Automatic annotation (TrEMBL):
One of its GO terms (cellular component) is nucleus. Gene3D superfamilies: 1.20.5.1500, Nucleosome assembly protein (3.30.1120.90). This is Nucleosome assembly protein 1-like 4. Residues 326-355 have a biased composition (Acidic residues). Residues 326-371 are annotated as: Disordered. Keywords: Differentiation, Nucleus, Phosphoprotein, Spermatogenesis. It comes from Hymenochirus boettgeri. One of its GO terms (biological process) is nucleosome assembly. SUPFAM superfamilies: NAP-like. Acts as a chaperone for the linker histone to facilitate deposition of histone B4 onto linker DNA. Required for both remodeling of sperm chromatin into nucleosomes, and linker histone binding to nucleosome core dimers. Plays a role in tissue-specific gene regulation. Required for primitive hemopoiesis, acting upstream of tal1/scl. Pfam families: NAP (PF00956). It is found in: Nucleus.
């Protein structure tokens, strides 16, 4: 017993000596600070009673996620309601674009804020008017030619898939509409591409339906941020004979090893085209894992579907004139300018910290977040 007592006294004395060492205390404090600054580390240090209450808050948060899901369902109902109000305006837009209706002088009045246009000399205006009158083709132009084709060219997200042989078909595109699912159906929206008579396919309307989900994931309810597209369906394009631009025909000759006879095999190979938009990659079952290329393809498809629905269809004329594109580019350039300025400041600080060893480090790219 006496030996154990002496050992304990020596141990306590050694502990006191260690704890009185400033370097040891600083190291311990630094370790505690690093643990407390980490959310998971801080939570682990809390008493069991507090952890129990945090679990109760998580349950409340999960209930909030389900209420938020209901909120977005009602937002979808509002979208459907207001779509009916927009419909006459969009129908009038189609009639003007196709040339079925000529707008009145009052409807054509538009007062631009651009100073250059306001200061245009009267004689220049007269020359422009005269040149238009002298051009019989300009006088006979119907509607707004290549309205949707121009929009597709202006939007990088679409233009990237646009091929030269797509354009003659898209000249017949008269309208793009968004249709929302009925209340009794799964939350979804359908893009309708209305075409005039053409030499390429017999469809008058091509469709792409995006199915959505507005409910928290049972395995990760806190990741819910609103409705998300979970699948999409295209449509069958009834191409006229020899007009299918989404495939190309390849002929190969094969020689029989034994008989030496030669035969020709014809294969149909997929070809890049905007019209592949209507033959999307299918979402695999939950048990199947998608490869990275498939996931990226689906993500790009879903993003484009949202862009058609939220930006292109409601603001078509602004993408036709390029005004919407200019606004987006101006916003992006502003952000980049701020980042470059900050990077420059960092370089100066590095040089001032080490005056004896002047070494200019290359600017590091700023981190960016994907929306």
């Amino acid at each position: 017993m006496e030996g154990n007592k002496n050992a304990k006294e020596k141990k306590d004395k050694l502990t006191d000596q260690i704890m009185q060492n400033p370097q040891v205390l600083a190291a311990l404090q630094e370790r505690l600070d690093s643990v407390s600054q980490t959310p998971s580390g801080y939570i682990e240090m809390l008493p069991k009673a507090v952890k129990r209450r945090i679990n109760a808050l998580k349950q409340l948060q999960e209930k909030c996620a389900h209420i938020e899901a209901k909120f977005y369902e009602e937002v979808h109902e509002l979208e459907r309601k207001y779509a009916a109000l927009y419909e006459p305006l969009f129908e009038n837009r189609r009639e003007i674009v196709t040339g079925n209706v000529e707008p009145t002088d009052a409807e054509c009045e538009w007062h631009s804020d651009a100073e250059d246009e306001d200061k245009l000399a009267a004689d220049v205006k007269n020359k422009v008017t005269l040149s238009e009158k002298e051009d019989p083709e300009a006088e006979n132009t119907k509607g707004i030619p290549d309205f949707w084709l121009t929009i597709f060219r202006n939007v990088d997200m679409i233009n990237i898939s646009l091929q030269e042989y797509d354009e003659p078909i898209l000249r017949h595109l008269e309208d793009v509409k968004v249709k929302f699912s009925d209340p009794c159906q799964q939350m979804a929206f359908t893009l309708e591409f209305h075409f005039g008579p053409n030499d390429f396919f017999t469809n008058s309307v091509l469709t792409k339906t995006y199915k959505m989900k507005s409910e928290p994931d049972s395995t990760d309810p806190f990741s819910f941020e609103g409705p998300e597209i979970v699948d999409c369906e295209g449509c069958t394009i009834y191409w006229k004979k020899g007009k299918n631009i989404t495939v190309k025909t390849i002929k190969k000759k094969q020689k029989h090893k034994g008989r030496g006879t030669v035969r020709t095999i014809t294969k149909h190979v997929p070809k890049d085209s905007f019209f592949n938009f209507f033959s999307p990659v299918k979402v695999s079952g939950e048990s199947e894992e998608m490869d990275e290329d498939t996931e990226n393809s689906l993500a790009a498809d879903f993003e484009l579907g949202h862009f058609f629905r939220e930006r292109i269809v409601p603001r078509a004329v602004l993408y036709f004139t390029g005004a919407a594109i200019e606004d987006e580019e101006s916003f992006e350039e502003g952000e980049e300018g701020e980042e470059e300025e900050m990077e420059g400041e960092e370089e100066v600080e590095e040089e001032e910290d080490e005056p004896g060893n002047i070494k200019k480090e290359p600017a590091q790219p700023a981190e960016c977040k994907q929306q």
